[in-house]
Design brief:
The complex is a heterodimer of chains A (265) and B (318). Chain A contains nine helices and no strands. Chain A is mainly α and 265 residues long. Helix content of chain B is 62%, strand content 14%. Chain B starts with a helix and ends with a helix. The chains are: A mainly alpha (265), B alpha/beta (318).
Chain lengths: 265, 318
């Protein structure tokens, strides 16, 4: 009787099992990291010098690219829905469609994707480089906890700045929608605003902001964990960055569904 | 410490973000309404149709308030509405829930009525009309489609029947196409008219039945006589009356029937002469033979009768 690892099916089975075990291990490590990070949040005021630069990077520095993305998303959203709504003589509803879509879904998800690409990847690359160059070990030797020093500032920055960024993205997206509504469908700016005011509620905005905060937690923890878990040489840094981005994307999509589902109850 | 420039950048970013959020919230939630005085009205509906606390209330499309509460009361949905003070809700107004299919945000709309109508007192119940929701409309559409299908089938059947009529198939078809049948029918109608005319003129038996009062009088008299007979019978007069009222006659009759039964029973069992006549085959044959002999004797007697008569005449003359 041949050994399981020598047949094709056996090798697949072993690979699947290893992958599953690795996944469970990763999720467990991330949960531990999240718990440790929340515990270290008590030291936030002593580490403001590390938190504020991260907030600047994630918030203000991301704003231009986020705004550019948001305005074009607003354009496209207004254009696509406007054509369909015009068929029914409902062009003035573009404001409602754009604002609700931005506030409930597109604002948080688009911003999360942007932050994953721009900040999450950078976080993983930075921490992974420190790991492979044994800087993390050096920190531990110096008695500096890497979670307090590296993870907690990024965690707090993502948690607070992502929702603020979403506020800007929502506003810019709605302005983009208003511009296209006026230019392409002749909807007056005031009619657009009145329609937004009529249909958009604070509840819609708040749900989007809570989503953004959840995404911020996911991005920071996944990015930091992949960086800290990197071992080997510089080649591993690139791999860790790719893994981090993919893992963050998938996690954001999955959590987006469950958070939305939770609110629909 | 972070550089002051970085701190300022983050601070400005954060504060501006919060200001935007505040402004948007102020606009979309119309925060000013919290400071407005409002009157409360109620309305009962069959279903809430997605209406919830905070849903808007409009007066012929103009936003005038919001839904304060949605609850179940007396088997109906009670909607409590807060309407801006000074907005007149008058008698004759009715509220409807306008379902929103696109965004899922239903609202209450109250119709405007002429200003000469009296105002509803505060807290009173506004009449309501339940407009069908999307699912109701789908059900009704389905029912309408079924009716249309039935109608189509009926029309198809009618078309087939008309085609058969056109082709002169069946009795009706022949009636439509065959001139001869038409003429016969016309003649039948003419005859019927003649008969009816005669009847109306009192001609014939049926005519007399219709026109002659004497027949009615006769009938009336017959009924009167029948009444008299029945009255006599009920008084016990006559045989029939006695049969009804007299117990003795009934007892006698019962005894006679019982005796007859005994006699018939004996006859069936073959007892007595009559019983033997009924049951005994030999006696029957003897009787038959006797009858045959008797017939033969009579016939012989008839044959010799003229000769005897002649001889008697001869002998008597001498």
């Amino acid at each position: 009787m041949s050994e399981p690892g020598k047949t094709k099916f056996g090798r697949c089975f072993i690979a699947l099992g290893n992958g599953l075990l690795n996944f469970f291990q990763t999720v467990g490590e991330m949960s531990q990291l999240l718990a440790a990070t929340i515990l270290w949040c008590r030291a936030v005021f002593k580490n403001l010098d590390k938190v504020l630069p991260q907030m600047g990077k994630i918030g203000a520095d991301t704003l231009p690219i986020a705004s550019l993305t948001a305005v074009f998303v607003g354009f496209v959203l207004a254009l696509q829905t406007g054509v369909a709504l015009k068929e029914f003589g409902q062009e003035e509803s573009i404001g409602a469609v754009v604002s609700l879509s931005m506030a409930r879904e597109l604002g948080p998800v688009l911003t999360a994707i942007l932050v994953i690409g721009r900040i999450g990847a950078a976080i993983t690359a930075e921490i992974a480089t420190m790991s492979v160059s044994e800087e993390i070990d050096a920190l531990k030797t110096l008695g500096i906890n890497p979670v307090r020093y590296l993870v907690m500032p990024r965690f707090l920055a993502c948690l607070t700045m992502l929702p603020v960024l979403v506020i800007y993205v929502n506003l810019v997206g709605m302005i983009g929608g208003a511009a296209v509504s006026k230019a392409n469908f002749g909807v007056p700016f005031m009619v657009y605003i009145e329609n937004v005011e009529e249909w958009l509620t604070f509840e819609d905005i708040a749900k989007g902001l809570v989503k953004a905060a959840v995404f911020g937690v996911i991005i920071s923890i996944v990015s930091c964990h992949r960086g800290l878990a990197t071992v080997g040489g510089p080649g591993e840094v690139g791999l860790a960055t790719t893994n981090s981005v993919v893992f963050s994307f998938v996690s954001v999509y999955i959590f987006n569904y469950f958070v939305t589902r939770l609110w629909l109850e | 410490m972070a550089s002051p420039a970085q701190a300022k950048k983050v601070g400005i970013f954060f504060i501006v973000g919060m200001v935007i959020l505040g402004l948007i919230t102020f606009r979309v939630e119309q925060v000013g309404r919290f400071f407005k005085k409002r009157d409360e009205y109620k309305a009962y509906f069959q279903g809430s149709k997605g209406l919830k606390r905070g849903s808007k209330v409009s007066l012929s499309g103009v936003n005038v308030g919001e839904v304060r509460n949605v609850s179940v009361e007396e088997g109906k949905i009670l909607v409590t509405m807060a309407i801006d003070k000074g907005i007149p809700i008058r008698e004759g107004s009715f509220a409807i829930i306008v379902p929103d299919f696109l965004f899922g945000k239903s609202y209450v709309d109250i119709n405007l009525v002429p200003p000469d109508r009296p105002r509803l007192p505060l807290g009173s119940v506004i009449d309501s009309v339940d407009v069908p929701g999307f699912s109701d409309m789908l059900v009704r559409f389905d029912e309408a489609m079924s009716s249309i299908e039935t109608l189509t089938e009926t029309l198809e059947s009618a078309r087939v029947i008309l085609a058969r009529l056109e082709n002169g198939e069946g009795a009706m078809g022949r009636l439509f196409t065959d001139e001869e049948i038409f003429d016969e029918l016309k003649e039948a109608v003419t005859n019927a008219n003649d008969i009816m005319g005669k009847m109306s003129r009192g001609e014939g038996t049926i005519g007399k039945l219709l026109e002659d009062d004497k027949l009615f009088e006769d009938l009336k008299e017959t009924v009167s006589n029948a009444n008299i007979i029945v009255a006599k019978m009920s008084k016990g007069e006559g045989t029939m009356g006695k049969l009804i009222t007299d117990e003795t006659l009934f007892t006698d009759l019962k005894g006679a029937v019982e005796n007859a039964n005994i006699i018939l029973g004996r006859m069936v069992r073959g007892e007595g002469t009559l019983g033997k006549l009924v049951r005994d085959e030999d006696l029957y044959e003897d009787l038959q033979n006797m009858m045959a002999n008797l017939t033969e004797t009579v016939n012989g007697f008839r044959a010799i009768m003229p000769q005897g008569a002649f001889t008697s005449v001869i002998y008597s003359s001498f």
